[in-house]
């Protein structure tokens, strides 16, 4: 993954813009096989809210950013796992955040009032500031199937 690569996944204004770039998934610990896109989950007692993003894992091989922070990266084909022509695979970042939410309804993460606090508007940003030697070591460890710390 190139140093200073920038990626945005999801869309902070998906309620207004439409769902084309929406990408957040919501679930509860212990129930992560059930993913919600357009609703916040109400988790049972003892379970926590989970927000998950899977970032784009294909790169155009040239640009570390683009005007919309999206066109220089793409998602792999969901069936084959391959990148489209002109793109090459990079490590896929998965962001998983677990929230301890008080019981009952009434929480929202979005802070844009015009988006009506809809979960579909959640988004994640990434800038690769890893040291190149550390990145190479971690990628090697992961690719070898070892537990990396």
**Approximate strand percentage:** 15-25%
**In this structure, how is the largest beta sheet organized?**
3 strands, antiparallel
Helix content: 10-25%
Strand order of the largest sheet: 2-3-7
Count the E strands.
Answer: 8
Low-confidence segments: none
| CA(first)-CA(last) distance | 19 Å
Please state the overall shape, judged from the principal axes of the Cα atoms: globular
Secondary structure tally, helices: 2
- The computed structural class is alpha+beta
Mean pLDDT: 88
Oligomer: single chain
State Rg. Answer: 17 Å
What order do the helices and strands follow? EHEEEEEEEH
Task: For this entry, give a set of tags.
alpha+beta, 3-stranded antiparallel β-sheet, 11% helix
Describe the protein in words.
The chain has a 3-stranded antiparallel sheet, with no helix packed on it. Strands 5-4-6 form a 3-stranded antiparallel sheet, with no helix packed on it. A two-stranded antiparallel sheet has the order 1-8. With 149 residues, the chain is of the alpha+beta class. It has 2 helices and 8 strands; from the N terminus they run E-H-E-E-E-E-E-E-E-H.
């Amino acid at each position: 993954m190139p140093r200073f690569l920038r990626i945005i996944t999801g869309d902070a204004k998906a309620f207004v813009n439409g769902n084309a770039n929406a990408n957040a998934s919501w679930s509860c610990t212990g129930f992560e096989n059930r993913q919600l896109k357009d609703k916040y989950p109400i988790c049972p007692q003892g379970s926590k809210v989970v927000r998950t993003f899977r970032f784009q894992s294909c790169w155009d091989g040239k640009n570390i950013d683009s005007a919309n922070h999206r066109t220089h990266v793409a998602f792999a084909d969901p069936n084959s796992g391959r990148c489209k022509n002109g793109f090459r695979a990079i490590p896929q970042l998965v962001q998983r955040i677990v929230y301890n939410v008080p019981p009952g309804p009434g929480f929202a993460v979005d802070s844009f009032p015009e988006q009506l606090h809809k979960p579909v508007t959640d988004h994640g940003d990434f800038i690769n500031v890893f040291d190149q030697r550390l990145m190479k070591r971690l990628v090697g460890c992961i690719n070898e199937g070892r537990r990396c710390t």
